[in-house]
């Protein structure tokens, strides 16, 4: 019988204990001998120097383990908002996820954002309430917070037990058992617990939650409902069947509790992953698999994180392909690939995010390799298209649209002779991260467009460490939007090199929203070959990325090309130059209005710092729009211009003595004051 495969992701708000939980899962499954601590920089999944230094996850770490005859691949995703694209890419390759909620803070902004992503991607979700080793944190209050904030009813399946203020055991609801630590620190069944003092109270507690689980599951299973109405016992196997249906619903969510740091609640959680997650989907015939992530390892080069859609032994692999297990930053060779499983792939050609690689039988297409198999690759555009097919059978997120780069930073080579190497390296990094973009300037430098400052710092560090590039980077600037105030044109431009000549007549007008529209005259459309038409469209769109004032892209504009003439043999760079100069003549600085990005800041801190934190936000031109509190913690939401929020992490840490937690997201753009 083929071994079942489950692919899972672990998501959470920053500092909820997500990576610590990943370490404990690996330890419980016997993959590591001791769980590494994030605080010590020893976490197995956080292998990058930047991750160890900052104590956060940056790249989605991948590991694997076996549990109860099920093979698991699991991905520890970043919690920091700058690396949200990593989360989106991870969700295209998994059937299920663990969403970690800290009992210390409850549902936070990134918790809510992650839950929405999981629901939109139709990824089966199990909750884990963490940090309950502190008896001051209430499990009941956290469950209420989950229900009120996420809008789902948590069905609790494990309950922590305390002795002298310390967590000492876990009660597993489904198996009606008690779990304690062995001498090695692993969770094991406490066989003699029913004879212990206090066992009657624990049995009563287990029965209470078992009855609740039966009540909830009866909404999805008629046999359970019939037994419950007759006050007859529901056996665990039948309850498990009902809970599987419950787990697939939108109204309920299976919930486990414990402490990742102390290693309590891990065994019950991992067992639940084998019970409640769906099987891997069936893939299309003839598909080798799909690229779901790109990585670059120094000394190895580029690898693709690849989900196989077929079972193949090594002897049948296409020529030039190699497959390995990826465990953090280690590549472990394999002799076969299995459908639904995740591997690191080295391919003979450059791959792209979302690319599906197809296998054709001998003779059906060109490019046949030595094994009698030929290859063709098609892109399903996970990173660029709305609603494209994801590997898990669900709609893939539009990553490049969801993560607009709000900062731009000028970068140039330290040594002129390194120009080509730096350009190639930046191109690789941009392909690896769909939320990062590079804009080349004719002056011999580049603009790096990033989501935030942390992402920029990490990219510059990787550029030096992984690619050996020495560059000078300017200070990051806010990337504004430029909009036309009025219709302009027409404008004429002519460009000539030797015998080749081009000329264009063009006008522009403003559009609602951020879209671009390019209209070509009927005469031009009828007479021009496809490559000329595509070249003009591409050149005009590229000119909007540069903008007029150099502050950001020109958005919401319609170009109308009245006339375009060219001589045979004209090269594509001539089209770009002709169109760019025409746009520069057409749109003047006086025709453009600047719009600045405004961020929605969500923050929480102890009440004794509320006045200082609020005053600092107002000094940054922030507008406080929501204030809440529970007597201990102060919560607020405010709209703040992005240009005023640079260095906020350092500032708010100083004001609140490191106790404040915050997150930001783009609210929109507003017209800048003249």
Concise account of the structure shown:
With 674 residues, the protein is of the alpha+beta class. β22 and β23 (446-450) form a beta hairpin. The N and C termini lie far apart (71 Å).
Give your account of this protein's structure:
The chain is an alpha+beta fold and 674 residues long. It has five domains: 5-276, P-loop containing nucleotide triphosphate hydrolases (Rossmann fold, 3-Layer(aba) Sandwich), CATH 3.40.50.300; 287-400, Beta Barrel (Elongation Factor Tu (Ef-tu), domain 3); 404-479, Alpha-Beta Plaits (2-Layer Sandwich), CATH 3.30.70.870; 482-587, Ribosomal Protein S5, domain 2 (2-Layer Sandwich); 595-671, Alpha-Beta Plaits (2-Layer Sandwich), CATH 3.30.70.240. 28% of the residues lie in helices and 33% in strands. The protein is built from 17 helices and 35 strands. The strands form seven sheets. Strands 2-3-1-4-5-11-6 form a seven-stranded mixed sheet, with helices on both faces. The protein has a seven-stranded antiparallel sheet with strand order 16-15-18-13-12-19-20. Strand 33 (623-629) and strand 34 (633-641) form a beta hairpin. Helix 6 (199-217) crosses helix 8 (236-247) and helix 14 crosses helix 15. The longest helix has 19 residues, at 199-217. The radius of gyration is 28 Å and the shape is globular. The N and C termini lie far apart (71 Å). Mean pLDDT is 83; it is low at 38-43 and 362-398.
């Amino acid at each position: 019988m083929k071994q079942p495969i489950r692919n899972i992701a672990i998501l959470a708000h920053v500092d909820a204990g997500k990576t610590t939980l990943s370490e404990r899962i690996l330890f419980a499954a016997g993959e590591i001998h001791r769980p590494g601590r994030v605080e010590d920089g020893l976490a197995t999944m956080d292998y990058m120097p930047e991750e160890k230094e900052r104590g956060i996850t940056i790249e989605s770490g991948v590991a694997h383990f076996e549990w109860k005859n099920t093979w698991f691949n699991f991905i520890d995703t970043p919690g920091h908002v700058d690396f949200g694209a990593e989360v989106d890419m991870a969700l295209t390759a998994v059937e299920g996820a663990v969403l970690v909620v800290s009992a210390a803070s409850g549902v936070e902004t990134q918790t809510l954002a992650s839950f929405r992503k999981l629901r939109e991607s139709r990824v089966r979700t199990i909750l884990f309430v963490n940090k309950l080793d502190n008896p001051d944190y209430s499990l009941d209050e956290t469950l209420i917070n989950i229900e009120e904030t996420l809008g789902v009813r948590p069905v609790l399946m494990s309950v922590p037990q305390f002795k002298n203020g310390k967590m000492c055991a876990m009660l597993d609801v489904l198996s009606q058992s008690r779990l304690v630590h062995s001498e090695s620190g692993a969770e094991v069944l406490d066989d003699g617990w029913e004879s212990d003092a206090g066992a009657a109270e624990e049995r009563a507690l287990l029965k209470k939650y078992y009855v609740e689980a039966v009540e909830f599951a009866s909404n999805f299973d008629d046999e359970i409902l019939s037994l419950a109405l007759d006050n007859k016992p529901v056996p665990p196997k039948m309850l498990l069947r009902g809970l599987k249906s419950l787990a697939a619903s939108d109204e309920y969510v299976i919930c486990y509790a414990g402490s990742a740091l102390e290693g309590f609640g891990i065994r019950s959680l991992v067992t639940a992953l084998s019970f409640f997650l769906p099987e891997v989907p069936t893939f299309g015939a003839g598909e080798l698999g799909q690229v779901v992530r790109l990585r670059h390892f120094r000394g190895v080069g580029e690898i693709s994180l690849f989900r196989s859609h077929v079972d193949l032994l090594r002897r049948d692999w296409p020529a030039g392909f190699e497959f390995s297990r990826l465990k953090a930053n280690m590549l472990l060779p394999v002799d076969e690939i299995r459908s639904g499983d995740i591997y690191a792939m080295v391919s003979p050609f450059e791959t792209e995010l979302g690319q599906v690689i197809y296998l054709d039988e001998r003779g059906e297409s060109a490019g046949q390799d030595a094994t009698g198999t030929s290859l063709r690759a098609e892109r399903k555009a996970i990173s660029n298209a709305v609603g494209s097919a994801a590997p898990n059978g669900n709609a893939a997120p539009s990553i490049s649209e969801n993560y607009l780069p709000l900062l731009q930073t000028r970068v140039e080579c330290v040594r002129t002779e390194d120009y080509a190497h730096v350009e190639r390296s930046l191109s690789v990094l941009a392909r690896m991260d769909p939320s990062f973009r590079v804009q080349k300037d004719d002056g011999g430098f580049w603009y790096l467009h990033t989501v935030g400052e942390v992402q920029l710092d990490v990219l510059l560090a990787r550029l030096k460490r992984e690619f050996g590039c020495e560059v000078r980077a300017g200070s990051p600037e806010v990337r504004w939007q430029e909009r036309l105030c009025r219709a302009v044109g027409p404008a004429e431009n002519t460009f000539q090199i030797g015998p080749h000549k081009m000329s264009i007549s063009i006008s522009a007008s403003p559009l609602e929203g951020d879209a671009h529209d390019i209209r070509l005259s009927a005469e031009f459309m009828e007479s021009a070959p496809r490559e000329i038409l595509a070249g003009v469209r591409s050149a005009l769109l590229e000119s909007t990325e540069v903008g007029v004032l150099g502050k950001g892209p020109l958005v919401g504009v319609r170009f109308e090309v009245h006339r375009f003439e060219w001589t045979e043999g004209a090269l594509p760079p001539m089209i770009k130059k002709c169109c760019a100069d025409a746009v520069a003549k057409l749109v003047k600085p006086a025709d453009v209005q600047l719009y600045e990005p405004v961020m929605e800041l969500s923050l929480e801190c102890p009440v004794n710092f509320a006045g200082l934190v609020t005053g600092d936000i107002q000094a940054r031109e922030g507008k406080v729009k929501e204030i809440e509190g529970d007597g201990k913690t102060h919560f607020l939401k405010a709209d703040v211009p992005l240009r005023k929020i640079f260095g906020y992490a350092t500032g708010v840490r100083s004001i609140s003595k490191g106790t404040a937690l915050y997150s930001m997201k783009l609210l929109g753009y507003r017209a800048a004051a003249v």
